[in-house]
Structure formats: C-alpha cells, structure tokens
Amino acid sequence: MYRFHPLESVVDERRRVRQQIREARRQLSQTQQQAASDNIVQRVADAAHLASASKVALYLANDGELNPQPLIDWYWANGTQVYLPVLHPFSSGNLLFLRYTPNTTMVENCFGISEPKLDIRLLESKSELDIIYTPLVAFDANGNRIGMGGGFYDRTLSPWRHGLGPRPVGLAHNCQQLPAIPTDHWDIPLPELLTPDQHWHFS
C-alpha cells in the first residue's frame, strides 16, 4: 500500500509513486497482462462512443504498461484508423501522431520504444483524432494521473482543459490506482479511464 509523506515535496512524492507503481505492474504475470488486455477490449466494445470512433491514437506498451495491442487489433478489424505517438523531431517534449497499420515501418526512439518511421504522408493532426488513449503510471478516483515525467501527454492534451481536441481516455491496470495523486498546475485530469475491472467516468 502506497503511503504519502506530508513533509515530502510534490516532486519527491511523484518520484516515489512512479517507482512503486512501475514495480507493481512489472510484477504482473503474462497471464494477468493478457487477461487485462482482453478485458479492456470488451470494455471498449461495450461503450458506444469508444467503439464507434473513426480515428484513435493508442500506444505500444513499455515497462509493464497495460498492453493495448489486442485493442489495436480489434479497432483494425472494425475499420477504425489507428495512430501512434511519435516524438516530434524539431519540437522537444511534443508528440506527433502517425497512422499505424500491420505494415507500418517501425523504428526505435531515444527511449527504446518502437514508433512509426517519420513519414509526413502518415501524419494526422491531433484535432482530427476522436480519442487519444493515454498511458499512465498512476491515477486516482478524481481522474488525476501521473505519467512518466516527460510531460508529453500533458502538452498533447492541454486543449482538453477547455474541452477542445480529442477525448483523452486513460488505460491502466487495477494496481495503478491510488487514493490520491499529488498534482501540479500543468496536469490535465482525465475525463475517462479504463481498467480491467472498471470503466471510470470523471466528467
């Protein structure tokens, strides 16, 4: 059980949250990971506004994250266009979104994560996306999230603070929930999040 320490700074708290929750999800077995991924597909299939999306951004799992590949496969099978985040080559800390298909040429970025090879023909404006499925390290019952610390998704989702842009939907394992998240002013709370056991609606 994670415990907050009142005398810690927000930065220190978030660092400890990341360390503890990342370790917890790394301990999940392959069977648990597969079951979680399959349950997420069913939750999306049961939610009309998610199932009917035309263009969605997802991600490739890393470091014990909930693996959305079965969801990607499901969207492909249903004719939905899928996009993946790509580190912006000229604007540090920002993301681009490129079309992802079974035949997409992939490269490894500076974090060791596979992403589509940069090709302007595959680029889509994030404003044209319906949903951005968002990875995270931890979340609470108010929709607050902690990411990996780079701020990539906070920058990407900043228009959502004013109700603009694609709808962000978090994906997480059950073990990533905390009673409360230490937040900063730049954090973008999620309106919606899926875990294997629950479909959360925060706003």
From TrEMBL:
Keyword Disulfide bond tagged: no
CC cofactor: Mg(2+)
GO molecular function, one term: 5-formyltetrahydrofolate cyclo-ligase activity
Keyword Transport: no
EC number: 6.3.3.2
Family to which the UniProt record says this protein belongs: Belongs to the 5-formyltetrahydrofolate cyclo-ligase family.
Designated name of the protein: 5-formyltetrahydrofolate cyclo-ligase
Organism the protein comes from: Oceanisphaera ostreae
